[in-house]
Amino acid sequence: MKGIIFDMDGVLIDAMPFHAEAFKIAIKEETDYEIDKKIVFQLEGMPADELVQEIFKRNNLSNKINSDLVEKISERKKQIFKEIEKTPLIEGVKDLIKELNECDCLKAIVTGAAKNEIEATIDEMIGLRNFDVVISGDDVDKGKPHSTPFIAALQKMNLKPYECIIVENAPLGVEAANNAGIKCILTINNTPLDISSDFANLILKDTKIFQDTKSTIDFLKEWCCNNN
Question: Structure pTM?
Answer without folding.
Answer: 0.92
